[in-house]
Amino acid sequence: MKKVGIGSDHGGFELKESIKEYLEELNIEYEDYGTDNEESVDYPEYGKKVANAVVAGEVEKGIVICGTGIGISLAANKVKGIRCALCSDTYSARMSRAHNNANMLSLGGRVLGVDLAKEIVKVWLEEEFQGGRHERRVNQIED
């Protein structure tokens, strides 16, 4: 894997820092697009920063985190070419890659424990897109 982009608002900051440590354990290079502390910020800014980096090819995949993961995923999905999946379990993470070719993962910093979040990230990063009939559907999403 080339590099993962990661970003969060204040509600996802603590989990983002834990995920960064986990990426280092996995020897996965990452670029942190902020925020840098728990002071209140607007999640759309950080969702879009990571999404734009994915589309530009600066990073291969993106992980974004806010309090629930909902708002930041909505913001990321506004960027053409992004398929950001909000996942709170490993099965959804696996299917988002295998069937939907999600290029971004969204997590909820206030709704997930660190250990489960790490499991979700690992599964999501390891799963490959299956293509085939799913390719047609992904193309329909892009259109």
Describe the structure.
The chain is an alpha/beta fold and 143 residues long. The chain contains six helices and five strands; from the N terminus they run E-H-E-H-E-H-E-H-E-H-H. It has a five-stranded parallel beta sheet with strand order 2-1-3-5-4, with helices on both faces. Helix 1 crosses helix 5, helix 2 packs across helix 3 and helix 4 packs parallel to helix 5. The longest helix is centred in the middle third of the chain and has 14 residues. The relative contact order is 0.19.
Q: What are the key terms here?
A:
5 strands, alpha/beta, 46% helix
Distance between the termini: 27 Å
Mean pLDDT: 96
Largest sheet: 5 strands, parallel
Strand content: 15-25%
Multimerization status: single chain
Number of E strands: 5
What is the general shape?
globular
Helical proportion, percent range: 40-55%
The helix count comes to 6
What order do the SSEs take from the amino end to the carboxyl end, as H and E? EHEHEHEHEHH
Class from helix and strand fractions: alpha/beta
pLDDT under 50 segments (min length 5)? none
What strand order characterises the main sheet?
2-1-3-5-4
Tell me the Rg in angstroms: 14 Å
Layout of SSEs?
Elements: E1 4-8, H1 13-25, E2 30-32, H2 43-56, E3 61-66, H3 70-76, E4 84-86, H4 90-98, E5 104-108, H5 114-126, H6 133-142
Parallel strand pairs: 1-2, 1-3, 3-5, 4-5
Helix pairs in contact: 1-5, 2-3, 4-5
